[in-house]
Design goal:
heterotrimer, A alpha+beta (about 180), B alpha/beta (about 1050), C mainly alpha (about 475), A: about 180 residues, alpha+beta, 4-stranded antiparallel sheet, C: about 475 residues, mainly alpha, 18 helices
């Protein structure tokens, strides 16, 4: 345990227990490092005091970019760079550009947003996972508390808090 | 003797100089880094390995890159530029196409010394610069792989000198022992050739010249002999005829001189603002012929009635025109016969009656009718004889019997094939076995030359010098377009050689004859060389009054034929040969427009050209009438059909059946010219040979057979390769618009279908509705107008286009798969009985009206094909052309689907350089055939879409020529291949931006308030091709006989 | 619409706990492949091999190997293409639309459905490439790439280009959507993995997922937005495919009703295909607890609805043909029903319009066997719908002179087989190595919609009733 970060890990069996625990422990002024659950637990983020994610804005921006790019591309290629008479249509016949524009919009919006999501939540192929308890992806709710960040509260106090809030197991883990 | 080859790395090794020897062991030359690194001893040679890999990589990528470029093979530049060969600029040479009695005055188009196309010679008064399918296709026969490479003796190649030595000595022996020699040929149209033959004959006493024609006109020759004392065909002028009555004479397709007749005929059929009259045409025939299809009134009759029907017509005429009536057996009421008689009588001196019959008695009668109608001197001229058919089957008959009796010792077959196209070929063949010396000049080992001991192959006509006299006083010259490809020799030279003449070079012989006989017929040129050059340049020479051809040796043939001069005599002759109420099935033999007598059978272009009527190719078949099909259970559907067991003169065979509307009930028909077995890879085994089925009527061969013909269903499934399987146009008036002459006289827009579209502002003309603003065509705007009244559907355009645009031939199997490639096709629609029910509409009536509609890319200004191409491979030019960019095409076929006219053609396979198609698409699969390809047009790759381009290569050439002279192209200077070939000038092409062009003027007159309409106007693709409504010269009550 | 009211039938039965769920689903991945699975895989690979021969012959000799001709330029190839694309609709539709509608019952089927979507689109993509004359060029010339001609681009007027963009986008987005959903489950398998290889593989696949609250938060909004994007996308894809025909001038193709009609048809066939596959997987993997009769019934109801929409579309077409007064239009439809291809039209009508109506009967709706058979019948019908639209419109269009018949060749069939082989090979591989049901989502609804909570709720209600008396 030489490294700076030394964690206390509490394990719960039920999402409601975890939610209450989070509330009570944060009320006690303990700063929770992170919770790990096998499935999305509603309001957990809120309980942990996370702000709403800004992904929707990213998605919108990328979508907008797609629309503009697609339109410009088609107008340039069909109408400016090398206009050719096709079926007697106008060189820049906007109605025929709609389908491609729509598709490109959706594509960029989706890919852009997902890329952002990957980056911000540090997901990448071969990405190393910081696992506190293997069962966190099976059926256990895991709460990790960085002791180095909670010097003033003190280890025993936190242990009690966890026990009181219904943690089935408690053990320390170092990273 | 064989040498052991040894290679040196260079002269150094050869010289063994020390410097070399020092490094001799070193594989790689010094400059390679591998050697480098070795020498300055780099660590572990890693460097060298890296370099090696580098080079490998480079090598591979280089190879890959190189692979992207198709290597140019056998491109040989001119080291010394030949005189008057401008690379990429075509040269034209005036010449003459003659094949048997078939004649056409042409211009040969050569590129870099290769003939690649023939076109009509406008200076000719005989063919008026028009051609037909056979003439257009003949250029490919020049590059036929089946041609002999040189002289042949006893089946082994030999030299000319040896051949001549043997032949001359043997001929001399024969004539010295007073033996008889016969030269057998088709009609010889060339006076000089005839002279050469005569020279041969005079050199060999007891020699004779036997001329015959597979499509004979003996009957007419005999009749004319006895009536006018001259066994020659008259010269017809259809253009003067207001009423034309034809009894089984297919004068537009195959009868005697179709190009000439079709052109004259069309003149009488064209109508317009200032000419609201047209000729009326009656056709009485058994098989629906091209001519019958164009007739205003057509009556199917049995061959066994023909004589009697003509007899009745004669009586009807005679009764009014004051001739002695003959007592002919009465037949049942023949529809339209009375009507025809009345019209003829009203148009005395301006009418024409012709018959295709080979029975002298019948022809006699026809002559009588024409005489009563005072047509001689107006529409028929006996003064100016025609020499298209001078042959006599009778004399060939006599030759066969003589040979059988061993009275003939030597025979020379001059480019003829009696072993195939003589009616009693079997008898002929075993008669020939009795002949000692047999020589053929045929260009290949065919059915006849296979019997010959010696073959002295003649040039193709495009390699030959010759002249011709198709009509009295009208001469033309044949000049070669290429030096002989193989070691062949002109037959005429052979004759001269064998005749032992000093002058054996036919070119000089020809020149001398012209010097002697023709120089003085004209006055403008006194110097012969200038006269000769001028004649060569013109290709034709008008020398009225002069005649060099006579009936020659064959005239005596008709002495034997006895024809009663009096009408009563004719009547009795006819009564005994024709039956008013024959009940048995009757077989009619007819030639097809493309294959004709079968001489050019090995030409794939002709084999794949759909028959104008049945739209079938690569086959002949038994045409049966609908009624007969019904009772025998035959059905032709989507090309699928059954076979019938046909029994003629005892022997029977199986033949596919084609249910043919318009076929006379109780008759069946078979096309001649098929069933060749030694013509070559293309034609061998295609169809069956119908020549043996001909029969004799009072000593003359006739093209029908009425003696116990049996037809029974052999119900074996069979597929006929048809390019069109649907009969009617389903009453779709936007496609076919037609009217009666009387209607047209009142209203120039008669028959026009004017769709209107319901819009928010009321009904509108489709032309006025568009989503888009359209585009301007600033400089040129190419358009085409097709007159459906003068289009006779002959298909010359199809072949001309095929030659011009390197259109591949795909063969029977692929045509059955409905994948033929023709860029311009002729849609043939039968009329159906007046019914409302769509299902009923699909079936043609028993004797339908026929409409032909040439269909090619319509070059739409709002082309649906362009819109859907994902890669811009087809776009519109600023001259209104719908362009194909072959190298950009990826072959989605979306354009073809979206084409309302279905004129786009797809390369389903690789048709060039592909074993699979080597035997059908010869023009793209062997080096010889490839010489015919037009260098200005790409050969399309597999998986690429192609279609008519309005011959864009010609447009570009024309524009460049004009530009060089700093002017706009003159109207008529740029013309598409189809328009160029059309014998009736039904296709008009030009630039509507040029106000005085014929097309601009025509469309001004006709487009708004006239006959010009666009197919499928209401779908608003605005094509650049206009069609002129079909006008029929019929009376008001439209009845289907 | 919130649908977890306790009176509803439970979505998960058998009193499964969270760990059971993991065990049931991840277990399949970890176990040794069963014999049946191996046989199935071998079979589908066999079909793939046979098909591969046909594909090779087509590529080597040209499209001439097929039955198409001068008039019928498109036939089996494009029919199969549209058919596969149609099938490829259900997956994304189920996950996207039903997610937006908060339909929890989707959860046990969406994973497999999405996989099916992706594989189906891959099969579909085979045909546009293969049916071109020069596939080696078509494969990249369809994209607006710079080239040595500088200004030579592609034609944005062409519906085929729209297709390229539509299918491309649809495929990409579906793939992403699907994979995002897979990440947490991969993580689960990773954390259970014993073998070094599987640990390595699944940890690399799981992108280092931990299940942290923050990640889950983002995960949810991402999948919600993706769903929001995918929903219109699904509708757009078949709309644009239908443009291939609707924007043409060919009678029988040139119809404004096509977009909705095609989309309905797509959903129709898609759901049928999902059913076919789900019923098999359910049986083989004993997932009766997750894919309950209720799921099947709900899907059958959707089939009735879409099937009826399609039926209405057919009738409307006929009406419009008559009402338009255009003789070509009228003939096109007369010819469909009574022409040489009447039998294709009959099959289409009976399979698509009549057979789904049987689902009005609850007994059939809830019978596994009946559902299985009908689901196949529906897909046969849908194939013929496309055949009828494409071939019978083309083979007799404007000019009777070009009217022809189309007869398929063995190679047409072979290439179709190829895509079947491809599809099932991929699907079996997926079924073995991927979690076929979204564990995380199931766990999420375990409390609300499994029957262990359910029973207690029922009791309460009964008590209340008793008291009331």
């Amino acid at each position: 345990m030489k490294t700076g970060s030394h964690y206390l890990v509490g394990i719960y069996n039920d999402e409601d227990l975890l939610l209450n625990a989070v509330k009570s422990i944060r009320a006690a002024g303990v700063r929770i490092y992170e919770c790990y659950t096998p499935y999305p637990v509603h309001n957990l983020g809120h309980a942990l005091g996370y702000k709403r994610s800004k992904l929707p804005i990213a998605a919108f921006m990328f979508g907008l970019m797609g629309t503009i790019l697609a339109l410009l591309m088609q107008i340039y290629m069909m109408g400016i760079d090398w206009p050719m008479i096709v079926g007697g249509k106008d060189f820049t016949s906007i109605p025929t550009f709609f389908p491609v524009t729509f598709e490109v919009t959706v594509l960029l919006s989706a890919l852009g947003m997902v890329a952002v999501f990957m980056i911000v939540s540090d997901l990448r192929p071969y990405g190393k996972a910081k696992v506190f308890d293997l069962r966190a992806t099976d059926d256990k709710m895991v709460m990790a508390i960085d002791l180095s960040k909670n010097k003033k509260v003190g280890l025993d106090k936190i242990k009690d808090l966890l026990k009181d809030s219904g943690a089935s197991e408690i053990h320390e883990k170092g990273y | 003797m064989k040498k052991n080859k040894r290679y040196w790395k260079g002269l150094e090794e050869l010289r063994n100089d020390p410097e070399f020897v020092k490094h001799a062991d070193r594989e790689f030359p010094e400059y390679l880094p591998i050697a480098e690194s070795k020498r300055n001893g780099e660590d572990n040679g890693g460097g060298s390995r890296r370099d090696f890999l580098k080079m490998m990589g480079f090598g591979i990528s280089a190879a890959t890159l190189a692979a992207c470029e198709t290597p140019v093979r056998r491109a040989i530049p001119y080291v010394v530029k030949p005189v008057d060969v401008e690379v990429t600029i075509p040269n034209y040479y005036a010449s003459t196409y003659q094949d048997g009695g078939d004649y056409c005055s042409i211009l040969i188009k050569t590129r870099e010394g290769r003939p690649i196309k023939v076109k009509g010679n406008d200076r000719s008064k005989v063919t008026m610069g028009r051609t037909n399918a056979q003439v257009e296709a003949s250029v490919l026969s020049l590059y036929d792989k089946q041609r002999l490479l040189g002289p042949v003796a006893n089946g082994q190649p030999t030299t000319w000198s040896d051949l001549d030595k043997n032949v001359t000595s043997q001929l001399r022996n024969i004539s010295s022992q007073g033996g008889r020699i016969a030269i057998v040929s088709y009609t010889v149209l060339s006076p000089s050739t005839q002279a050469a033959i005569n020279d041969f004959i005079s050199a060999h006493p007891g020699a004779q010249h036997v001329m015959y024609d597979p499509l004979a006109s003996d009957g007419m020759l005999a009749a004319n002999k006895s009536m006018f004392g001259k066994a020659a065909l008259p010269t017809y002028d259809f253009s003067k005829a207001e009423v034309i009555v034809s009894f089984g004479a297919d004068f537009l397709g195959t009868w005697i001189a179709p190009i000439t007749y079709a052109n004259q005929y069309a003149k009488t059929r064209k109508v317009g603002k200032n000419k609201k009259s047209m000729s009326r045409h009656y056709q009485f025939e058994s098989v629906l012929s091209l001519t019958g299809a164009n007739a205003d009134y057509r009556t199917p009759i049995k061959p066994s009635q023909e004589g009697l029907v003509i007899g009745q017509l004669y009586n009807l005429i005679a009764s009014k025109a004051g001739g002695s009536a003959g007592s002919f057996t009465k037949t049942a009421e023949v529809p339209y016969l009375q009507k025809a008689a009345n019209d003829l009588l009203n148009a005395r001196g301006k009418s024409l009656v012709v018959s295709g019959s080979n029975d002298p008695a019948v022809q006699m009668l026809v002559n009588q009718i024409n005489q009563l109608l005072r047509n001689y001197g107006s529409t028929i001229s006996t003064e100016q004889a025609s020499y298209y058919r001078r042959g006599s089957l009778a004399s060939l008959d006599r030759l066969v019997s003589d040979a059988k009796a061993g009275r003939i010792d030597g025979v020379i077959f001059y480019n003829c094939n009696p072993a195939y196209d003589y009616f009693d070929a079997a008898a002929f063949v075993d008669a020939m076995s009795k002949v000692k010396l047999k020589i053929a000049t045929t260009d290949r080992i065919d059915e006849t030359s296979a019997l010959a001991t010696y073959i002295a192959p003649d040039h193709h006509y495009l390699e030959s010098w010759d002249d011709a006299e198709p009509q009295q006083g009208r001469f033309s010259l044949t000049q070669p377009g290429i030096t002989p490809i193989f070691d062949t020799r002109q037959a005429q030279s052979s004759f001269l050689t064998w005749a032992g003449r000093r002058e054996t070079d036919y070119y000089n012989y020809l020149k001398n004859r012209w010097r002697q006989n023709l120089l003085n017929t004209q006055s403008e040129e006194t110097d012969f060389d200038r006269f000769w050059d001028l004649s060569l340049f013109n290709g034709v020479l008008e020398a009225p009054g002069t005649t060099l051809l006579t009936q020659g040796q064959t005239s005596d043939a008709y002495a034997s034929v006895s024809i009663p001069a009096s009408v009563s005599g004719v009547a009795s002759a006819i009564n005994q040969n024709y039956k008013a109420d024959a009940t048995g099935i009757e077989l009619v033999l007819y030639p097809k427009v493309a294959i004709g007598s079968g001489r050019q059978a090995n030409n794939p272009w002709l084999q794949e050209m759909p028959d104008p009527i049945s739209k079938a190719c690569w086959d002949n078949y038994l045409t049966v009438s609908q009624s007969m099909a019904k009772e025998m259970g035959f059905e032709t559907k989507e090309g699928g059909t059954g076979t019938a067991k046909l029994t003629v003169n005892g022997q029977s065979l199986n033949i596919p059946v084609m249910v043919q509307p318009g076929q006379a009930p109780g008759t069946v028909g078979i096309a001649l010219g098929y069933g060749r077995n030694r013509a070559g890879k293309v034609a061998n085994g295609v169809g069956i040979n119908a020549y043996p089925f001909a029969s004799k009527v009072n000593g003359n061969f006739v093209y029908f057979n009425t003696s116990d013909i049996q037809v029974a269903s052999a119900d074996k499934a069979y597929k006929i390769a048809q390019t069109q399987t649907h009969e009617t146009y389903m009453g779709r008036e936007t496609i076919i618009q037609d009217a009666l002459l009387s209607e047209y006289k009142e209203n120039p827009m008669a028959g026009r279908f004017e769709p209107e579209i319901e819009t928010s502002q009321g009904r509108k003309d489709p032309k006025d509705i568009s989503l888009w603003h359209g585009h301007k065509y600033p400089n040129h705007h190419w358009m085409m107008a097709i007159d459906m009244n003068s289009c006779i559907g002959c298909g010359a355009c199809t072949i001309s286009c095929q030659v011009e645009n390197n259109v591949p031939v795909v063969g029977r199997k692929e045509v059955i798969n409905r994948r033929e490639m023709h860029w311009i096709r002729i849609d043939r629609y039968y009329s159906s009985d007046e019914v409302e029910d769509t299902k009923q509409m699909e079936h043609a009536s028993a004797n339908p009206e026929v409409t032909f509609q040439p269909m090619l890319c319509q070059q739409c200004n709002n082309a649906p094909c362009e819109t859907v191409c994902p890669v811009l491979a087809t776009t519109h030019s600023t001259e209104g052309l719908n362009q194909m960019t072959y190298n950009r095409c990826i072959g989605t076929r979306y354009c073809a689907n979206n084409c309302p006219y279905k004129v786009r053609r797809f390369n389903w396979f690789k048709y060039h350089d592909n074993e699979q198609f080597a035997n059908v698409n010869v023009a793209m699969n062997n080096d010889l055939g490839k010489m015919v390809l037009n260098p200005d047009v790409t050969v399309r790759a597999r998986g690429v879409m192609e279609k008519c381009t309005f011959c864009v290569q010609r447009i570009q050439l024309g524009k460049l020529e004009a530009k060089k002279q700093g002017r706009r192209p003159i109207d008529g200077e740029i013309i598409t291949a189809c328009a160029e070939a059309c014998p009736t000038e039904a296709i008009l092409f030009g630039d509507v931006k040029d106000p005085n062009s014929r097309i601009a003027q025509l469309l001004n007159e006709e487009a708004e308030d006239g006959r010009a309409y666009r197919v499928l106007e209401e779908i608003r693709v605005s094509p650049n091709i206009y069609y002129m409504t079909k006008i029929r010269n019929k009376d008001q009550e439209k009845t289907n006989a | 619409m919130e649908v977890t009211s306790p009176v509803r039938e439970p979505l998960i039965t058998g009193r499964r706990t969270m760990h059971d769920v993991t065990q049931d689903i991840a277990g399949r991945v970890e176990d040794k492949p069963t014999v049946t699975w191996l046989l199935a895989l071998a079979a589908s690979m066999g079909v793939l091999a046979i098909g591969a021969y046909a594909v090779w012959m087509t590529l080597w000799n040209g499209i001439g190997m097929w039955g198409n001709n001068k008039t019928v330029g498109w036939a089996w190839g494009i029919t199969n293409f549209v058919w596969w694309v149609g099938i490829g609709h259900a997956g994304t539709l189920i996950s996207a639309i039903l997610l937006l509608f908060r339909q929890k019952w989707r959860m046990s089927i969406n994973r497999a459905a999405e996989a099916m979507t992706i594989f189906a689109v891959m099969c579909a993509a085979v045909f546009p490439i293969l049916h071109t004359g020069r596939p080696w060029l078509a494969i990249y010339w369809m994209f607006p790439l710079p080239n040595i001609f500088g200004s030579l681009w592609i034609d944005f007027h062409s519906p085929l280009v729209w297709d390229v963009f539509a299918i491309g986008t649809y495929f990409t987005v579906s793939l992403v959507f699907w994979y995002i959903g897979l990440i947490p489950d991969f993580a689960t398998i990773r954390d259970r993995a014993k073998g070094a290889i599987s640990r390595f593989v699944y940890s690399s696949l799981s992108f280092g997922w931990t299940g942290s609250a923050k990640a889950w938060e983002r995960y949810e909004s991402v999948s919600l937005i993706l769903a929001g994007l995918a929903a219109p996308l699904v509708l757009s894809v078949h709309t644009i495919v239908s443009f291939d025909f609707a924007t043409s001038v060919i009678p029988g193709w040139h119809t404004t009703i096509f977009p909705p009609y095609f989309v309905a048809g797509a959903v129709f066939s898609g759901f049928a295909m999902v059913l076919t596959l789900m019923l098999v997987t359910r049986k083989v993997y004993r997932l009766e607890n997750y894919i309950t009769i209720q799921h099947i019934e709900l899907m059958n109801i959707i089939i009735i609805v879409t099937g009826s929409i399609v039926g209405v579309a057919y009738i409307t077409e006929l009406f419009m043909a008559w009402y338009s007064g255009v003789e070509y239009e009228q003939y096109a439809f007369l010819n469909r029903a009574t022409g040489p291809y009447w039998w294709a039209y009959a099959i289409m009508m009976s399979c698509n319009v009549i057979s789904p109506q049987l689902f009005w009967i609850k007994k059939i709706r809830t019978s596994i066997i009946a559902t299985f058979i009908l689901s196949i019948v529906v897909n046969i019908g849908m194939w013929f719908e496309r055949f009828v639209i494409i071939v019978t419109s083309l083979h007799r269009d404007y000019l009777p002179s070009s009217w022809v018949m189309f007869y398929p060749t063995l190679y047409d069939v072979g290439v179709y087989l190829f895509t079947f082989g491809l599809f099932f090979t991929l699907f079996f591989l997926f079924a073995k190595f991927f979690p076929v049901i979204n564990m995380a989502e199931i766990k999420a609804i375990l409390k609300s919609s499994s029957d262990n909570v359910h029973k207690d709720v029922k009791k309460e209600i009964e008590h209340k009733n008793v008291e009331a008396l």
